[in-house]
Amino acid sequence: MGKTLFEKAWNRHIVDTVEGGQEILYIDSHFIHEVTSPQAFDGIRKRGTGLFRKERIVATADHNVPTKDQHLPIRDLLSKFQVDTLIQNCEEFGIELYGLGHPYQGIVHVIGPELGITKPGMTIVCGDSHTSTHGAFGAIAFGIGTSQVEQVMATQCLLLQRPKTMRITIDGELGKGVYSKDIILHIISKLTTAGGTGYFVEYAGSAIRALSMEARMTICNMSIEMGARGGMIAPDEVTFEYIKGREFAPKGEEFEKAVEFWSTLYSDEDAKFDAEYDFNAEEIEPMITYGTNPGMGIGITGRVPKSSSIGGEASFKSSLEYMNLEPEEVLLGKKINHVFIGSCTNSRIEDLRIVAGFVKGKKKASHVQAMIVPGSKQVEEQAKKEGLHQILEDAGFELRSPGCSACLGMNDDKVPKGEYCVSTSNRNFEGRQGPGARTMLVSPLTAAAIAVEGKIVDVRNYLEEGVPA
Amino acid sequence: MEKFIKLKTTIVPLPAQDIDTDQIIPARFLKATSREGFGENLFRDWRYDEQGDPKPDFVLNSTVFSGSVLIAGKNFGCGSSREHAAWALYDYGFRAVVSSYFADIFKGNALNNGLLPIQVSEDFLSQIFKEVEKDPTREVEIDLEAQTISIPTLDLSESFEINSYKKTCLMNGYDDIDFLISKKKQIEEFEKNYVGY
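Predict the joint structure of the above. Result:
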C-alpha cells in the first residue's frame, strides 16, 4: 500500500519504537522564543547535560517585544526580564539568536521560512502551537510544551504517539476577494475546533496547488485551531522556487540534490488516510468569526447562527454574550473601531501588498485605529523598498516593528475592553487581545476594506480592476 | 514528577465546553521564567474582576465546591500549546481533570506534569455533573493501576484509556527526559546514518 506524505517524512526520523507504541522521533530543527524556553534552559542547567545539538536551535524574541521604539530598553519589567533571560541563555549555551536589533529578528514562524531554514521533509518543533506554519513546505512541524522543549534540548528527540492522518482536499478556483485565510476559516467552521484532534492534516487539491508559499503558510498555520497536531502541503516547484537562494538554503549542486529528494515527498496514489474531507473553493466567501473560538465563523454575508450546530448551548450563549451579538444578527454594517493586521498567520510581504493595494489612494475611516505589524525585519525592509510603507502611512495606518503584538497582547498592543477588533490573527478566544476585547478574525483584504469603511463590509463590493486577486 | 497512583477527593465542576488555554492562564501571566506560582492566576479572568476581587459566581470562589479533581465540558485545553496551563492547574491543587474530550497538546503537557487527564463518555460526564450539583460532598475515586474512575457511594464507575508508557511514568514519577537521555547512544547511531537536506 502506498504511503502518505506524512508517513514518508515521519518514518525517516524514527530512532526507535518503545513500550506503548510511542516512537522516538529525531528533530531536524528546533525554534525557540523567550516565553516557552526559560524553564527548559533551567531544567538543562539542573541536569548538567548541556545541549545535545545546539547548532540545530534558532532563537528569536517575538511574543513580548514592543512594536514601537525597539531600540530603547523594554519598559515592561517582566517582559524585559524574560527577553534578557533568553539573551543570557543563548549566550551561555552558544545558540544563534536573532533578537531585537538583529536584521533577521521577527515572529519565529515568519523568519524560519524566509531564511531558508524551513525545508521539505524536515521535522520542526517549537514551544508554540503555530509551528504548524512550516508544514506548508511539506515539513512535519508542530507545537510542543516547555517540558518537550527541554527533551529536544537534551536529546534532539521527542517521545511521541504517531498521530492519525487526515487529508483535506480543496478543489476549484477561489473567487475574487477570497484568500487562503478564508479557506482555512471556512474549513474550521465546518470541522469545529475539535474536528482535527489526534490527526495530522495534509491539504491537497487544485486550490491548494494554486496558492503561493505565503498563502499556504496561512492555511497550515491555523491547523491547530481545529485541534490538529499539524498541517502539511506536499512541496512542488512553487516550494523549490521559494527556497532557492535563501540565506540557509542549500546552494548549487547541493540544492539540486535536495530538490531530487524533496520531489519524492508526496502522498502515493493508493495511500490511505484515516479521515478525508472535500471542499469546493468556489463555495467559499470572505469569512469573519463572530464567536470566541476560531470555529465560530461565517461567510461575510451570513448571519450569526440561531444556536450552536454542535451542542453546548450554554457555551454558545455565553460566547454571544461576551461578543455582545444576537442570534441571527447580520454582521455587515457593524461599526468597527480597531483593525490589526499582523501575526504569524498574515504578516508577510504578500499580506502587506494586498493591504497596500487596496488602500492606495484611500484613507482609513477617521474613527478607526488601524495597526500593521510586519512579521519580520526583512518583511519590514522589503515593504519599505516597495514603497508600501508610504502608501499605508498615507492611508492613516500605524506602522509598527515586528513582533507577535496584538495577536495575544503580551506587550502593550492590547485592544481595550468591550471593543471589537477585526484582526488577521488566528485566535478570537475571550480576552485574547486584552481583557474584555472582542476579536473577529478575517483575511488581510477584508481587514483593509473594514479599516477604510469603518464597518464590516463585503470587500467584493469594493474591488476595482487591477487589485490583486 | 510526583507519582500518581490513587486519588480520592471531592470534585470541582466547570461545565463550560471548549475551555481554551487562554482562559486557563491568560498570556500576560506567561512572562514568568520559573515553573512556580501559576496557581494564583488559574482562570484569572473568570475568577477575578478588574479590581482584583473574586467573582462570586465562579466555581473556584465557591464555598460549596472544592477538591483536587476538576470536571469540565468537552474539548478541554484547546488553543495555545502553553504548558503553563498544566502548571497552573497543578499548582492550584488539581491532580486530575475529567472531560469527554481533551485537546492533544494540553493532554501531553498534563501527562508530562503529573496531572492526569481522564477521558470519559459524554454520559458518564453528565452523570457526574448532575450528582455533584446535587451533593457537593460527593467524592470520586481514581485508580490509575485499574484505570477506573468511580463514585462508589452511587455505584457509578467507568474505565478510561491511557498509554501504557505514560501510565508507567505517572505511577513511578518518571519523566520522558530521563528516558530519552538513557537512549543517547542509540540517537548518536541514528545520526551517523541519517541524511538531512
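The longest helix of chain B spans residues 122-134.
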